[in-house]
Write a structure and sequence with these properties.
Chain lengths: 154, 215
Amino acid sequence: MTRRDFLTGTVKAIISALVTGVTVVAAYFMYPAGLRSRTMVYCDCMDEDALPKKGVKRAEYRYTQKGREMAVGVFIVKDDSAVYALSPVCTHLGCLVNYNRHKNEFICPCHGGRYDASGKVISGPPPGPLARLPLKIENGRVYIGVMLPAAAAA
Amino acid sequence: MGRAFDWLDKKFRIKAPHKGFLRRRLPPGLSYFYCLGGAAFTSYLILFITGLMLSLYYIPSEMEAYESVLTIQREVHLGWLIRSVHKWSATLLIVFILCHTIRVFISRAYKSPKELNWIVGCLTLVSAFASGFTGYLLPWDQKSYWATTVGTSMAATIPIMGRHLMYLIRGGMDVGGSTLIRFYSFHVLWLPVTMAALLWAHFHMVKRLGIKGRL
């Protein structure tokens, strides 16, 4: 190996290492921070008396984040055996589904996904049922459990 | 060219390598279909200039973006015009690039020795699509919000890496303020610069390898 070969080889290795390093650092820098530090927070939703006797009711749960009041939609479902909360986020591509009282179905406006009142897929593109959110009744109030960033508070 | 230009070129010397670029001989058998690439580039230039102007008034913030677009539409002098020209040129850019791609395909201009120019063209098309996608979010209204939610959710359907790719694109779990800033940055910095570099390479190869066969 000549001196020249050694030097060009070294320079090439340094440049490759730099390019790789910068790419890795840039990708890591771009990836959002704090995704793992989310915790389950129970957010106030409604009075226990407001729970539906039977069927589906649209409600909102509230929390504050960076000083802003957030209100997020949720469906409270009461069937013969239990009461549970369904996320309105369509499992296909994340639009919000609407409840159609007439058909007793959840229908997504984006690509026509249909779910029955318990959140199971009837037809359309959704790959899975609507997510069930933890629901807790305490001191006459209904709370919905959601994963929130550490800065948020119920 | 003019005397002023000649004076500049005494130092800059750009004339020699581009001698008579407006008088170059074209091969026989060209038609107006060979102008589609030029039409696309013209759209790019219009987008660049109107985009520079819009960036003076647009505010890429969660709380102010929508209001600033309303201001551009209603209060800024000719704001409605500049924004409409930007919007329509964006549509035309995609149309012209696609037509240009079809022309290249039909006339088999992608063949050797110009295969690399085809690849660069495809990358430009991808950049144009990305510019359209990121620009669509910026008005920050219901339509753009949900279009971006759906569009970025598609990334999550890629096996294994998909979800992380979606978070990377969104800058968070959901489409929000960080997504807006991210898309703004891509739309006004990353993508125009990338496209300028790609277009330079594209035109350089057109000059070296010709439009139709060898020039």
